[in-house]
TrEMBL record:
This is N-acetyltransferase domain-containing protein. The keyword Acyltransferase applies. It comes from the Bacteria. Residues 7-152 form the N-acetyltransferase domain. The keyword Acyltransferase applies.
Length: 157
């Protein structure tokens, strides 16, 4: 594997916000066609990433060569976001990002996922997450049924 194809994970920086916004928007459009149409443009999403997400969450990006291919954002022990460029899926990048987040969540990790997002649910279940609860959608701005998943590390006693 050449250095250009190797993925490295690093903390996100403010300068990454426009690329993170593009990944966020493209991934949601490609993988969740059931979502309501995007109401915010790239500039608004970039501002949200820069002014809210990067300030409230510990955020990491996956980088191949000089290109950011995905990101993950952790708010306490809640995995708030994990998105990949649509062309970067199924290459182990999501697993690398998830592994980084888990390293920073030694007591475990929760997340919310839309019930319709069967691919994400399968990914997280593959990585040891279990369903804690389901919801009718009143706790997300899309008003779509979701579920809470939880990963707890196996500790040897």
């Amino acid at each position: 594997m050449s250095d250009d194809s190797k993925i490295r994970i690093r903390p996100a920086e403010e300068a990454d916000a426009p690329v993170i916004a593009r990944i966020h928007m493209a991934s949601r459009a490609a993988t969740m066609p059931y979502l309501p149409p995007q109401q915010r443009d790239h500039e608004q999403v970039t501002q949200w990433i820069r002014d809210i997400l990067l300030k409230q969450c510990r955020t990491w990006v996956a980088v191949r060569g000089t290109e950011i291919t995905g990101y993950a954002a952790l708010d306490g022990d809640l995995l708030d976001h994990l998105y990949l460029r649509p062309d970067a899926r199924r290459q182990g990048i999501g697993t690398l990002l998830l592994d980084e987040v888990r390293r920073h969540s030694p007591d475990g990790l929760s997340l919310h996922v839309f019930q319709q997002n069967t691919e994400a649910r399968a990914f997280y279940e593959h990585h040891g997450f279990t369903v804690l609860d389901t919801n009718d959608g009143d706790r997300n701005m899309e008003n779509l049924p979701d579920m809470t998943l939880r990963w707890t590390p196996n500790r040897m006693r």
